[in-house]
Amino acid sequence: MFDQFNRRINYLRISVTDRCNLRCTYCMPEEGIVQIPHNQVLTFEEIVEIARIAVQHGFEKVRITGGEPLVRKGIVDLVRMLKTVEGITDLGLTTNGTLLKQFAQPLYDAGLKRINVSLDTLDPQKYKAITRVGSLSDVLEGLEEAKKVGFNPIKLNCVVENNSNEPDAQAVKAFANSNGFIARFIPKMNLDDGVFGVVEGGEGGDCSTCNRLRLTADGILKPCLFSDKGYNVRELGIQQAIEMAIKNKPACGVANRSGEFYNIGG
Ligand code: SAM
Ligand code: SF4
User: Fold this and answer.
1) What residue spans define the domains of the chain?
2) Which pTM was predicted?
3) 68 CB near ligand 1 (under 6 Å)
4) Which of 41, 80, 132, 188 has a beta carbon 3.0–4.6 Å from 110's, enabling a disulfide?
């Protein structure tokens, strides 16, 4: 479906949980996180039904995200279920990679072939400082396993202050090049203040070509990361929520005071 600015909306990002095993400084507060009650989180059946109806509206690309998608119980089953939806030509998943060593093979066997792993630095101390609780070696082992298992492409999402000239980003770029991974650099954004920028080496951040809708773990379809607008699939029905989200997708984002990266999915 095209929106009112003639953009073809064909990419659905599905947040399967707002929970995360890390606490990245730019994404989550250290404490005082308000979590979606378990009974409000979309079931796998609901997610698959939404994907199915989205395909009927012209969606082709689906990305599973979060929070951390690999902490959602049964995530491998969800991948398997989404693979049965005819018309999804591109299924991907974005993860912090800390649990990838354990999950790479089952995810691949369930039909996932593309994966994005967040990696901002190759310095273990800095990694710990950014994520508050994470261990860089877990991510590196996860990446090694993903490569061994055959994921292709493996992309690295690297958050930068300004651009990829920064030393940590340069190290990530060199690491990507030597391993056959693709690095993308995401300028640090601030939803409240509407500070966002274009992703270097990838899509995103350019409103004129934005082709996305985002689904939160509790079933709100968001037409734009930088807007408070949202359409509840359970209240409106899936079809109407999709149509309203597309129809009301703003030309350009301004600010979002009602959500955070971890509950909208980045
Ligand atoms: N937990 C998974 C991960 O970290 O990859 C998936 C969800 S996370 C919200 C998705 C992406 O959003 C990650 O690549 C993360 O680096 C990015 N992100 C989170 N907060 C951000 C911010 N303030 N500015 C730019 N990117 C951000
Ligand atoms: Fe968790 Fe990803 Fe947010 Fe980091 S960026 S806190 S890993 S959801």
Assistant:
1) 11-264
2) 0.97
3) yes
4) 80
